[in-house]
Amino acid sequence: MSTVLEIADLKRLAQRRVPKMFFDYADSGAWTESTYRANESDFAKIKLRQRVLVDMTDRSLASTMIGQNVAMPVALSPTGLAGMQHADGEILAAQAAAEFGVPFTLSTMSICSIEDVAEATKKPFWFQLYVMKDRDFVRNLIERAKAAGCSALVLTLDLQILGQRHKDLRNGLSAPPKFTPKHIWQMMTRPQWCLGMMGTQRRTFRNIAGHAKGVSDLSSLSSWTAEQFDPKLNWDDVEWIKNLWGGPLILKGILDEEDALMAAKTGADAIIVSNHGGRQLDGAPSSISMLPRIVDTVGDKVEIHLDGGIRSGQDVLKAVALGAKGTYIGRPFLYGLGAMGKAGVTKALEIIAREADVTMALCGKRRITDVDASILHKD
Ligand SMILES: Cc1cc2nc3c(=O)[nH]c(=O)nc-3n(C[C@H](O)[C@H](O)[C@H](O)COP(=O)(O)O)c2cc1C
Which residues are recorded as binding glyoxylate (predicted)? Predict the structure, then answer.
C-alpha cells in the first residue's frame, strides 16, 4: 500500500476501492459544488502566526464538547449510507472513534441501525435525527436512541427538502434505486468491497426498515424516505423534540446570524455552523467564513461547533481559534472508511491529531483549550 500521510491519500485509495456511485455520493456537493469547494478553500485563506522560543513540551489536544471529554475536539459527522463505503461502515467508524476518544454520530439514514452500533460498541455514541413527516416514527426513533444510551441528539435543521447533486442523478443513485448493468460492473470491479458486502446482512436503511409503516422492500423504503423529509419543520418542532429527548441537544445546520439567535433561544447545548458539507444550498457561504459572525452574535449564549471543509489538523485549529469549541469531519472519515475500513478511520483521526498537535506547537501553544484568535494573522 502506498504511504498514507494526509487525508488526500485516503481519498485516492477510497476512489480505487469503493464503487463509483458510492464514492461519488460522498465526494459531491449540490449543483455547481461552489459551496462544497469554498468550504475547503476558505480555510487556506486563513494564515497562522509562527512563534518561536516558546516552551512546546507537554502538549494536549484534550478538550470537551457539550461537557463530554474528547481526546481532541473533532467528532465524526453523521453521514447517510456510510455502510455503503465499506461493509458495516457505521459499526467500524463508531469503534474507531470510541477507541480514539472522539464522538461518533450515527445518521438517521445509516445502514447499520442504532441497535447494531450499540451492540458493537462499549462507549455511548451520538444520534442524528431527521424529523420525518411520520411523527410516530420520529417518537420511536428517539426512544430507540435513548434505549441505546446515546449521549447526545444532533438535530439536523437544513434538510427540509433535498438539495440536488448532479453526480448522484447521473449515477442513478435515486429513490427508488435503479440497478443497471453499469452498477453491477462498478461493483464487480471492486472485488474487496463486494466480498465485504457479501459477508454482511446490513445492506439497507436499518433504522427505517421494519420500523416505518408501509415499508416492505427496498423500493418502497427508498420512496418512503424521499417523501418523508418535512418541508413544514419549524421552531416549535425543535421544542417538541427537545422535550421528547430530554438530554443533550445539538442543532445542526445553522449558517445565518438570525437563525443562530433563534437556535440559542431554544436552550440547545450547542449549535453546529454548517451548510451540510455543501450538499444543500449551493451558493451559500462556506461554514468557516460564517463562523466569526455567528460567534459574535451568540458565542456568549450557546456552545458553537463547526463542520464543512475540514481536511487537516490545521483546519481544526483555525476553527477553534475563531471560536468553535468543537468540529466535525464528514468526508475525511468516509474516505478512510472506504480506503481501509476501521483502520482507515483511525488513520484519518491520527493524521488530523498529528497535524493539529504540530501546528499548535509551532504557533506557540501547548493546549488546544488555550488556542484563540492570537494564533491567527489579523490581515
Ligand atoms: C456522504 C454524506 C452523507 C451525509 N449524510 C448526512 C446525514 O445523514 N445527516 C446529516 O445531518 N448530515 C449528513 N451529511 C452532512 C455531514 O454531517 C456534514 O455536515 C458534512 O459532511 C461536513 O462537511 P465535510 O464532509 O466537508 O467534513 C452528509 C455528508 C456526506 C458527505
Answer: 25, 165, 276, 279
Give the total residue count for the chain: 379
Ligand 1: which of 279, 306, 352 to mutate, judged by most atoms within 8 Å of the beta carbon?
279
Cell 466569526 belongs to residue: 292
Tell me whether residue 2 is in a domain.
Answer: no
CA angle 132, 133, 136 (to 5 degrees): 85
Does the pLDDT value for residue 379 go beyond 80?
A: no
Q: What is the pLDDT of residues 194-225, one digit of tens each?
A: 999 999 999 888 999 888 887 777 677 778 88
Cβ of 156: how many Cβ atoms within 10 Å? 22
Distance 214 CA to ligand 1 centre (A): 27
Residue of 166, 183, 276, 305 marked catalytic? 276
Q: Is 211 among the domain residues?
A: yes
CATH of the domain at 288: 3.20.20.70
Q: What is the pLDDT of residue 167?
A: 93
Tell me, what DSSP letter sits at residue 322?
Answer: T
pLDDT tens column, 266-288? 999 999 999 999 999 999 999 99
In a domain? residue 300: yes
Tell me, in angstroms, the distance from the centre of ligand 1 to residue 79's CA: 5
Residue 276 annotated among the catalytic residues of the structure: yes
- pTM for this predicted structure: 0.97
What's the domain count of the chain? 1
The long-range contacts involving 283-288, CB below 8 angstroms and separated by at least 24 positions, are: 283/31, 283/32, 283/34, 283/35, 284/35, 284/255, 285/35, 285/38, 285/255, 286/35, 286/38, 286/39, 286/41, 286/42, 287/39, 287/255, 288/39, 288/42, 288/43, 288/46, 288/315, 288/318, 288/319, 288/322
Q: Is residue 1 part of a domain?
A: no
Residue range of the domain that includes 280: 7-375
